[in-house]
Q: What sequence folds into this?
């Protein structure tokens, strides 16, 4: 069996994806698999045909790697792949649709508004119901790309301009002050969670991928009952979107103990600073065991 680790891509998260992919490739190599590394570009289909892979291990972050596009191509080619299927990937990548699905399933989300570029350009929008501080983010990016915490009207236009540079829809969300907790899910089991404490106050792209810029608390320093509730909520969010394989569910818990789900990452980072491997270690998975389990789920799961 030949495994193709597909990483890189053309999104804003390309460099992180390459690092994740290299870590997965090394783990599979050490486990004795026949494995090849494929840097995903516009010629991806040709590369896959050339390599004659039997299964794809997807480590693409953002863009068409995480939005269902590559998954659809692999299905047409008859090649099984790790992680969520086309529909779940597309839903999870779209923050607006994700929130609407969560609301339908009674999964708490922060109050939010969706702004379309045409309304922004004509000033045909109103954020009074959200107020300040708020969080401005593109509807279709990951890894905190284009995300800004806005404290007043003066910062709002700059944040909106930045977010709109990534697409035609922007989410403006009420800022919830509290603890940032991430729950790792593997198929139908919540593995545990990690609390992240960025040293600069915001879990930005830089804080996520630069060593020493964030403290990781494993397990989170919260009440045991609340921790169990968060794990249940994480699994519920994973299932509500129809996700498969390994995901990471991002949440904020305010100081009154109310939890809000922000998003589900269908292809979590697999670098040395990534959260899913840290969380999996709580459940007894070292990195190689986690990688092997993700691959095996793809092989036994008929999408």
A:
């Amino acid at each position: 069996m030949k495994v193709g680790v597909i990483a890189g891509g053309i999104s804003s998260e390309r460099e992180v994806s390459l690092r994740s992919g290299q870590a997965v490739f090394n783990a599979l190599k050490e486990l004795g698999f026949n494995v090849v590394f494929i840097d995903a570009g516009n010629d991806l289909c040709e590369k896959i045909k050339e390599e004659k892979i039997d299964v794809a291990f997807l480590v693409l972050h953002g863009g068409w790697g995480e939005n269902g596009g590559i998954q659809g191509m692999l299905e047409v080619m008859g090649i099984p792949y790790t992680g969520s299927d086309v529909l779940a990937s597309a839903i999870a990548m779209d923050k607006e649709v994700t929130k609407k699905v969560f609301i339908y399933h009674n999964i708490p989300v922060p109050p939010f508004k969706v702004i379309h570029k045409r309304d922004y350009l004509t000033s045909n929008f109103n954020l009074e119901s959200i107020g300040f501080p708020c969080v401005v983010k593109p509807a279709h990016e990951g890894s905190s790309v284009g995300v800004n915490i806005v404290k007043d009207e003066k910062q709002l236009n700059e944040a909106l301009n930045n977010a709109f540079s990534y697409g035609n829809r922007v989410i403006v969300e009420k800022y919830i002050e509290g603890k940032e907790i991430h729950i790792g899910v593997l198929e139908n089991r919540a593995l545990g969670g990690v609390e992240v404490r960025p040293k600069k106050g915001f879990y930005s792209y830089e804080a996520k991928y630069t060593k020493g810029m964030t403290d990781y608390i494993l397990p989170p320093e919260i009440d045991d009952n609340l921790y169990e509730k968060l794990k249940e909520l994480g699994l519920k969010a994973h299932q509500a979107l129809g996700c498969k394989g390994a995901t990471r569910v991002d949440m904020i818990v305010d100081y009154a103990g109310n939890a809000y789900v922000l998003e589900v990452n269908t292809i979590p980072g697999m670098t040395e600073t990534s959260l899913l491997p840290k969380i999996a270690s709580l459940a007894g998975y070292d990195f190689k065991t986690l990688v092997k389990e993700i691959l095996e789920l793809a092989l036994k799961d008929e999408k």
Summary: DSSP finds twelve helices and twelve strands in the chain. Residues 104 and 134 are 23 Å apart (CA to CA). The longest helix spans residues 14-30. The first strand starts at residue 2 and ends at 8.
